[in-house]
UniProtKB/TrEMBL annotation:
This is Autoinducer 2 import system permease protein LsrD. It comes from Kitasatospora indigofera. One of its GO terms (cellular component) is plasma membrane. The chain crosses the membrane at residues 37-53, 73-106, 118-139, 151-170, 196-216, 244-266, 278-294, 299-318, 324-340. It is found in: Cell membrane. The keyword Transmembrane applies. Its main location: membrane. It is a multi-pass membrane protein.
Length: 351
């Protein structure tokens, strides 16, 4: 009985052993590892659940339009908050800055034609809202960067101060004749090609522009670098303080833009209606995968994070769930999404 010794021919014919980690193409593994992919999966599951539960009433064309319109203003605010959170900051004042910008814009409109004013008044009042947001945000950024006051304290103080100024100016009452009819009928209720609300178009354009800025420009790279390690960013020549001022000014600018969108859609300053805007926006950004410790986040993730509570709220309303349970459900989804992301990241670090 002969003993066969494997030779070169046998080794060449034998199948190569499978290498760990080679079962999927690299681009598939990269997409699966993205925070946005997991967050998008949560959104898809919510849509699938409500569609199965109420197939005749959920996700109709009207529902899609309403969800997108209601999310538009929070998406604009969320874009600014994304930059702030990536640099390991926080801005609790966005809702109050929106109110103050709206009030100052409305005061100009009231004294220059009111509801019957034309596009000239609309242009100036819009500029007032944007400048108010930039100045307020830049001042807060200066206090964070130069005075070294923690951003939580600065923006919490800014939250109260901006709202207080708005109430002093108006006496605590929403003024009448605060919005031009031209602005309301065109931007507030108008639709591009008769199909897409202008508010959605503005939010989409804002998202695309600043998403590209964050992902592909020096400003975006500096933002991530400062959030990851501000001291290392200083050592490589980045003016960290100046960049932080710009970041908070940007957040203020987008709060001012949000105020114009709010005035156009609702026709009032809604002084008492923005106390929880900061929490809604921060929730959206965190749901989108941004880290409160800085260095991680994306505008795409924020888009997904904004639509998760919007879809959840709409679905629960259609299912006749009480408002109180809607708030509980949104809180549970927030905690669960963050926990799953943390669990996945720990597993990836161990692996």
């Amino acid at each position: 009985m002969s003993t066969h010794v494997p030779g070169e021919a046998d080794r060449a014919a034998a199948p190569a052993p499978l290498r760990p980690g080679r079962t999927l193409p690299g681009w598939v593994r990269r997409i699966a590892a993205m925070n946005e992919t997991w967050t998008f999966g949560v959104l898809v599951l919510l849509v699938a659940f409500f569609t199965a539960a109420r197939p005749d009433t959920f996700l109709t064309r009207y529902d899609i339009t309403q969800i997108a319109t209601n999310a538009a203003i929070y998406l604009v605010l969320g874009v600014g908050m994304t930059f702030v959170i990536i640099v390991a900051g926080i801005d609790l004042s966005v809702g109050s800055v929106l109110v103050l910008s709206a009030v100052l814009s409305a005061e100009y409109t009231i004294h220059h034609g009111g509801a019957g004013s034309g596009w000239g008044t609309v242009a100036v009042s819009t500029l007032i809202a944007l400048v108010t947001g930039v100045v307020w945000g830049g001042l807060q950024g200066w206090l964070v960067a130069k005075a070294k006051v923690p951003p939580l304290i600065v923006t919490l103080g800014g939250f109260g101060a901006a709202l207080g100024l708005a109430q002093i100016i108006t006496g605590g009452q929403d003024p009448t004749g605060a919005v031009s009819g031209e602005l309301q009928h065109s931007i507030g209720f108008g639709k591009l090609f008769g199909q897409i609300p202008w508010l959605v178009v503005i939010a989409f354009a804002t998202t695309v522009v600043f998403g590209l800025v964050l992902a592909f420009t020096r400003f975006g790279r500096y933002t991530y670098a400062i959030g990851s390690n501000p001291e290392a960013a200083r050592r490589v020549g980045i003016d960290v303080d100046r960049h932080l001022v710009k970041i908070y000014a940007l957040t203020g600018l987008l709060s001012g833009l949000g105020s114009v969108m709010w005035l156009a859609y609702f026709g009032t300053t809604s002084i008492a209606g923005h106390s929880s805007d900061n929490l809604k926006v921060i929730t959206a950004v965190v749901l989108g995968g941004a880290s409160l410790f800085g260095g991680r986040g994306s505008v795409l993730g924020t888009v997904i994070g904004v639509f998760i509570p919007a879809v959840l709220t709409t679905g629960l309303i259609i299912m006749d769930v009480q408002q109180y349970w809607q708030d509980v459900a949104i809180g549970i989804v927030l905690v669960a999404a963050v926990y799953l992301d943390q669990f996945r990241r720990r597993g990836r670090e161990r692996g």
